[in-house]
Amino acid sequence: MKKIALFFLVFLFLLTPGIAEAESGRELIENSASFNDKQVTLQGEVIGVMIRGDSALVNLFDNGVAIGVWCRAEDARKISVIGDYRHVGDTVLVIGTFHMACPEHGGDLDIHADNFTVTAIGRELDRSTSLSLLTLSVTFVASAIFVVFFLRRIRKEKEKIVPWPFQ
Amino acid sequence: MGLRKFSLRAFLKKNFDFITGILSEAGLTVLIMGIAIAICLLLVFIKSVI
Amino acid sequence: MILPLEREDLKVIGYNLRNICYLVAALLFLPIAVAVVCGEFDTVPYFLIGSAIGIILGCILSFSLYTKREMELKHAIVMAALAWLIAPLLASIPIWLANATASYIDASFESISGFTGTGLTLAVDIDHLPHSINFLRHFLQFAGDGIGIIVISLSILGRTEMGSVLAFKGEAKEIGIRPSIVRTSRIIIGIAVTFLVIGTVLFTAAGIREGLDFGTSVFDGLNHSMTAYATGGFSTHSQSLLYYQSIWFEVVAMVLMIMGALNFNLHYAVLGGKRREILKNIEVRLLLFGLVTSGLLISTNLLFANMYPTTEALFRKGVFHAVSAQTTTGFQTVYPFHFMLMWPVFSMVLLSIAMIIGGCANSTSGGIKMVRIGVLLKSLGREIKRALLPRSAVMTGTFHNIDDIPLTDKIVRSAALMAMSYLILFSVGAVITAAYGYSLEDSMFETASALGNVGLSCGITSPSMPAGLKVMYMFLMWAGRLEIIAVLVLFGFVIFGLRKGVRR
């Protein structure tokens, strides 16, 4: 019985099409030819969503590289936070077909998602002003104002005919 | 003092050279892209025939 | 005879640099407005510090180097060369403070790439940069390359003395639109702003059509309009225009890139009623020929290499990158690694040649420039004719560039000198890059991109690239923007000064 089950599992495994598991977006870019037209898995931060009719283009950022993923519009609508300076975007797991030069999308590199899952919701980042930097900037601005008026006064005292700095 | 009525005809007449100049330059880019698309079409056709 | 350097020479140069410091300080206030609108108040100190340093430096130069002596040609050229170093170094302060790059040298690289309209980037994580810093990167390209910092300062100052004329020439711009340099400067700004507005509207419309929200469409539209017209190539996203995967974005970009690559004088003539100039002008004809030829050859190569088998893909990859290279813009819809690892060598070489040739003179483009190529080709034709005709035959020739200009030996010599200097610098740059272990075609590609102020990258330019290469590319971008001669004059100025010493 066990042997039959094992044989059946091996048979099923041999029947499934090649699935290449991508470690990262960088690996997909650097080894595009080997992943071309194969199923890949990519997990990344959402940095852009563009809904176009029934489909949507979602840009995922992973390991310093961003890749465009085409998915259904209803999947894209599940995204709540898009990553930017003040936000970490939703994390999305995509399983789909990788195209090095997609014939459907004008030769662009993309992934056509078969499976699109939001695995983590994004959040807002704390971007409060650093007190030390604020103090430094105030110091510099005050110094600039001081230098302008101080040098102007010295000039006047020495009776040099020097143009006003902003003339 | 009342506001002068805006006349599209007067505006176009005054800026005729500027507007036609912009259109000429747009025409140049359309020409370039038209030639480019024609080249791409021709190349794909030639390859399909070969 | 070259006169020995005097202290007054250094004072003239230093004193006149004060306006560049004040100008950069003023320009750094614009991103503050963007920061406030986008709620990025934590970034405001970066720009205040940069601006304050610019003002302090300008005041020190103004006070300590005050002189009444008039600028001569040598002063103007050296001043222009130094202005194009000082301005980026000041503008790099906010970029470095914002941690947009890994180090200060990377921030300087980014700033020089911005000001010179190159577009090679060492920014880390562009997609998460503050809007204000991203705006600064794009605005530097518009102000530096789209208009020119000396042009801006002259139009504001309103001076018409000889020094202004010479400084204008020192920035590698030819005089000719209007007799008054101030009027010319203001016309250049007017033309740039016109295309900025048109471009912003078109990009915004494309963004809304492709599913972006209104705010993002306007922000991205404004920034891309600045860098497309300035033929700079910076983008608000790490994927460049590939982020949008949109033919509309690419078409609008191509329109603006071509507009940016046309001579300012041509724009002035055409917008002033001389519409026939568009087809009569030697540079437009050569640009048209260059775009069609490079587009045709690159597309053919890509098609028969089975890279992009459809018409749309050929247009959006082959033609788009041919236009991006020829106009020296640098927008890419292909990952840099793919240029290096997947594109055929023939296409890479063609792109390199297109980058070296460049766009029209007196435009936002880099490269050797079409007018010089035209002059050299016409001169070559004339020499061939001369050999075939009797010795007593008198050879004349003209070329049409707004006016009919006689093809004199002086013009031919000037074009040949510049082209030769360019090619020597290109060769040295390519060899040095190759010495770092990169392949020759990739080295040629990246060097052509830096020297021509293009910005297309095959992957060599990255934060991890050797520091020596970063410094070399900064030099190439700077030299390319000034069309090399100003840089050579600066070196001559320093060398003669060192040899003979500085007299009181």
Q: Would you mind describing this structure in some detail?
A:
Chain A has 167 residues and is of the alpha+beta class. Chain A has helices at 2-15, 25-30, 32-35, 73-76, 131-157, and strands spanning 39-52, 55-62, 65-72, 87-88, 91-99, 110-120, 123-124. Helix content of chain A is 33%, strand content 32%. The model of chain A is unreliable at 15-19 (pLDDT under 50). With 50 residues, chain B is mainly alpha-helical. The termini of chain B are far apart. Chain C has a domain at 276-466. Chain C is 67% helix and 2% strand. Chain C starts with 6 loop residues before the first helix and ends with a helix. The model of chain C has no long low-confidence stretch (mean pLDDT 90). Chains in contact: A-C, B-C. Chain B binds chain C through residues 17-18, 20-22, 24-26, 28-29, 31-33, 35-37, 39-41, 43-44, 47, and chain C through 198, 251, 254-255, 258-259, 262, 267, 270-273, 275, 278, 284, 288, 291-292, 295-296, 299-300, 303-304, 309-311, 314-315, 318-319, 323.
Q: Class by helix and strand content of chain B? A: mainly alpha
Can you count the beta strands of chain C? 2
Give a quick account of the main beta sheet of chain C: strands, pairing sense, barrel closure. 2 strands, antiparallel
Main beta-sheet annotation of chain B: none
What class, by secondary structure content of chain C?
A: mainly alpha
SSE string of chain C, helices as H and strands as E = HHHHHHHHHHHHHHHHHHHEEHHHH
Features:
A: 167 residues; alpha+beta; OB fold (Dihydrolipoamide Acetyltransferase, E2P); 7 strands; elongated; C: 504 residues; two-stranded antiparallel sheet; 2 strands; 2% strand; globular
Could you write a compact summary of the structure shown?
The complex is a heterotrimer of chains A (167), B (50) and C (504). Chain A is 33% helix and 32% strand. Chain A is an alpha+beta fold.
Task: Describe the SSE topology.
The complex is a heterotrimer of chains A (167), B (50) and C (504).
Chain A: H1 2-15, H2 25-30, H3 32-35, E1 39-52, E2 55-62, E3 65-72, H4 73-76, E4 87-88, E5 91-99, E6 110-120, E7 123-124, H5 131-157
Parallel strand pairs in A: 3-6
Antiparallel strand pairs in A: 1-2, 1-5, 2-3, 4-7, 5-6
Chain B: H1 8-14, H2 16-49
Chain C: H1 7-16, H2 18-27, H3 30-37, H4 44-64, H5 73-97, H6 104-115, H7 131-147, H8 149-157, H9 162-170, H10 181-209, H11 214-229, H12 247-260, H13 264-271, H14 277-280, H15 282-304, H16 311-326, H17 336-341, H18 345-357, H19 370-388, E1 398-401, E2 403-406, H20 409-435, H21 440-451, H22 467-481, H23 485-500
Antiparallel strand pairs in C: 1-2
Helix pairs in contact in C: 1-4, 1-5, 2-4, 2-5, 3-7, 4-5, 5-6, 5-9, 5-23, 6-7, 6-22, 7-11, 8-10, 10-11, 10-12, 11-12, 12-16, 15-16, 15-18, 15-19, 16-18, 18-21, 19-20, 20-21, 20-22
